[in-house]
Design a protein that fits this description.
- The protein is of the alpha/beta class.
- The chain has 2 domains: 1-53; 75-470, Glycosidases (TIM Barrel), CATH 3.20.20.80.
- It is built from 14 helices and 16 strands.
- A hairpin with a 2-residue loop joins strand 3 and strand 4 (146-147).
- The N and C termini lie far apart (111 Å).
- The structure holds beta-D-fucopyranose.
- Beta-D-fucopyranose (FCB) is lined by residues 82, 85, 219-220, 223, 276, 332, 390, 428, 435-436, 444.
- Beta-D-fucopyranose is lined by residues 82, 85, 219-220, 223, 276, 332, 390, 428, 435-436, 444.
Length: 471
């Protein structure tokens, strides 16, 4: 009887159970739906956040009048060069590298060491008020401790000549090249080599700082480290992440050391570093993989370095003297680098991607003047005045340079209107020169150079720049 009742109960419960299973099904469906909605909302929120935090603006240049620019009184107009790229007949880490690889030799370059006075006439012709150039350590100290007074005198004469023309000299103490003996000791890979660099800097500073008030310590430390120690395209042609990080840290140590010592010797001088700010943007702005790649590269290239200056900590080590070691920041801006998991990077060289509407420059990377503003905002956080120490384009036919120049000047002019303290603009470069790993095929000059005859001629973009300065 009892058993029969139970069975009946079972039977009676069947429809109830069946109903529960349907409810479960429905519930599962709803849970899955909620999860999908949640995921989509999360993705949208993430994308919105990323877009806000890391925007990649593109302007409609058709609608912008790039002639509508204005610069404050006293804004400094300049051009930039570097010793190894123009002086000629060098003997340093670069010439060693050139002869040991298939790279094009720099040779006599622009023969500038001989004809510098004529080249300074070109500066006067342009009407610039500042000239950024670099001092070649290997000329001054061919072997350790053996100082070449004659070469030092030439740099001193250059400085006097510039000042006589009303042009502010802005020397850089290290622009990619240094003596072979120092390279043989390991250069920037070994922190025990830094005192050699410091004593060279002190000597130059002691000879010129009575007349030179603005100095760049080092040019583009990240480019030097990455090209020489990751990609192997610059001397010493190594490929080691470990060494790259070590060189990055030691260059920061070197800068901090030089800054502290020179400031003590002459506190009236302004010292800065020329930092290449390359922007890294994800190839696919929707991709969850391209984003982290772009962020990581940006952090390694830009963020870690800025943090070093702001906090005295860089790439997991303390460099206390680096904190606040800038009186101004030199900004070198050229392009953004579109990157992601499937980075278009071949074994030896960088191949550059571009957005569909962007123009590719002769170097291969896109023209992205909008990025100048992002680079300015990035360095503005350092809280010191900005000097644009380099900006330009490889363009042998000079068909792109005028537009390139005007777009970048327009962006700078807008940034100044927005209250950012930008003091100068130095165009790279005064004249065509030896473009490092690319040799002579990349033509960056406002003046073209015929390397057979060493004849210089003002390009149309040079005339335009002269006109802008005059205005
Ligand atoms: C910069 C270098 C400079 C020149 C330009 C085109 O990275 O500082 O010497 O080669 O690129």
């Amino acid at each position: 009887m009892e058993g029969l009742r139970n069975r009946r109960q079972d039977i009676e419960e069947i429809p109830i159970l069946a109903f529960s299973a349907a409810t479960m099904d429905e519930m599962m469906r709803q849970v899955i739906l909620a999860a999908i909605i949640l995921l989509i909302s999360f993705k949208i929120a993430l994308i919105t956040y990323r877009r806000r935090a890391y925007p990649e603006p593109h302007y409609d240049w058709q609608k912008i009048d790039t002639n509508d620019i204005s610069f404050p009184d006293g804004f400094i107009w300049g051009t930039a060069t570097a010793a190894h790229q123009i002086e000629g007949n060098q003997s340093n880490n670069w010439t060693d590298f050139e002869s040991r690889t298939e790279k094009e030799p720099s040779g006599i370059a622009c023969d500038h060491w001989r004809v510098w006075r004529e080249d300074f006439d070109l500066l006067s012709e342009l009407g610039v008020t500042s000239y950024r150039f670099s001092i070649e350590w290997s000329r001054l100290e061919k072997s350790p401790g053996e100082w070449n007074e004659e070469a030092m005198q030439t740099y001193s004469d250059m400085v006097d000549d510039l000042i006589g023309r009303g042009i502010r000299p802005m020397p850089t103490l290290h622009h990619f090249s240094h003596p072979s003996w120092w390279e043989d000791k390991g250069g920037f890979t070994d922190s025990s080599n830094l005192p050699d660099f410091l004593s060279y800097c002190e000597r130059v500073f002691d000879s010129l700082s009575d007349r030179v008030s603005v100095w760049c310590t080092i040019n583009e430390p990240t480019v030097f480290s990455a090209m020489g120690y990751t990609l192997g395209q610059f001397p010493p042609g190594r490929r080691s992440i470990r060494l790259t990080l070590r060189v990055m840290r030691n260059m920061m140590r070197a800068h901090a050391m030089v800054y502290r010592s020179l400031k003590q010797r002459n506190p009236d001088c302004a010292l800065g570093i020329a930092k290449n700010v390359t922007l890294f943007d994800p190839a696919n702005r929707w991709s969850p993989i391209d984003w982290p790649v772009a962020r990581l590269l940006d952090w390694l290239w830009n963020g870690a370095w800025r943090r070093g200056i702001m906090t005295g900590r860089m790439l997991w080590v303390k460099i206390p003297d680096a904190k606040g070691s800038l009186d101004f920041i030199g900004l070198n801006y050229y392009t953004h680098f579109i990157t992601g998991l499937f980075m278009p990077t071949s074994a030896d060289e960088l191949d550059f991607a571009k957005r569909e509407h962007e123009t590719t420059t002769e170097f291969g990377y896109p023209m992205y003047a909008e990025g100048m503003r992002r680079a300015i905002d990035f360095v503005a956080d350092l809280g010191v005045p900005i000097e644009v120490t380099e900006n330009g384009v490889a363009d042998s036919s000079d068909s792109l340079r005028p537009e390139h120049l005007m777009r970048h000047l327009w962006v700078i002019s807008e940034a100044i209107k927005d209250g950012i303290d930008i003091r100068s603009y130095h165009h790279w470069s005064l004249m065509d020169n030896f473009e490092w790993a690319e040799g002579y095929k990349m033509r960056f000059g406002l003046y073209s150079v015929d390397f057979e005859t060493q004849e210089r001629s003002l390009r149309q973009s040079g005339e335009l720049y002269r006109e802008v300065i005059r205005r």
